[in-house]
Amino acid sequence: MRRCVLRAWSSSSRGLTLIELLVTLVILSILAAAAMPYAELTVRREKEMELRRTLRQVRGAIDSFHEDWRTGGISKTGDGVSDDGYPKTLEVLVAGVEAGDARGGKRKYLRRVPRDPFGDSSDEPADQWVVRGYQDEPDARSWNRIDVYDIRTESQLTAIDGTRYDAW
Predict the structure, then answer these.
(1) Quick one: which of 125, 143, 152 has its CA closest to 88?
(2) Residue 43: inside a domain, yes or no?
(3) Do the domain assignments include residue 101?
(4) Is 23 inside any structural domain?
(5) Nearest CA to 152 among 134, 166, 138, 140?
(6) What does each C-alpha distance from 126 to 14, 36, 83, 94 come to in angstroms?
(7) pTM of the entire structure?
(8) What's the CA gap between 107 and 64, in Å, rounded?
């Protein structure tokens, strides 16, 4: 006896119809459109977190440098030290300054000058930052080139929380 086997696919339904393909494409495009803003927000949030970490790291290095100058940990008359006890450039934090103790040597505060996540990637990392000296006004746009008291990003974009990045 022969058994009849029912086939799930008959000869007339071997592929997808044009309507099925269009419906699938519409569903995929709706899902992609919903995911894009979320992906952009995630990338922006990561850049903001990197900017916060970088500012905290560099500002901490500047504060440590000044504290060492104040307590005699570094030479008060060294090449990279200003009269107010701050580094003359960001590169001084990487290159180091002469220690003020009997052992000598150099004290370094950063391994490298970090990049600004919102800055121009073609610039050198130290050139990406807006630098403010100790004698400069808090909102000054030009640097006195005497020392480095603080840094901020050049980006005038608005953060997720509504503040501007250059005000951080």
Answers:
(1) 143
(2) no
(3) yes
(4) no
(5) 166
(6) 63, 33, 22, 11
(7) 0.77
(8) 11
Chain segment 107-135, per-residue pLDDT in tens: 999 999 999 999 888 888 888 999 999 99
Point out which residues pair with 151 in neighbouring strands: 131
Helix (H, G, I), strand (E, B) or coil at 150: strand
In a domain, 89, yes or no: yes
Q: Roughly how many angstroms between the first and final C-alpha of the chain, as a whole number?
A: 85
Average pLDDT, the chain: 88
- The span from the CA of 81 to the CA of 9, in Å, is 82
Residues in the chain: 168
Which residues form the domain of 122? 49-167
Q: What are the backbone angles phi and psi of residue 62, rounded to the nearest 5°?
A: -65, -45
Q: What is the CA radius of gyration of the chain?
A: 29
**86: enclosing H helix or E strand:** none
The pLDDT value given to residue 22:
92
Which position has the token pair 């600004």? 116
Please tell me the predicted confidence (pLDDT) of residue 162: 92
Number of domains in the chain: 1
**What residue ranges of the chain have pLDDT lower than 70?**
1-13, 102
Closest CA to 129 of 38, 72, 61: 61
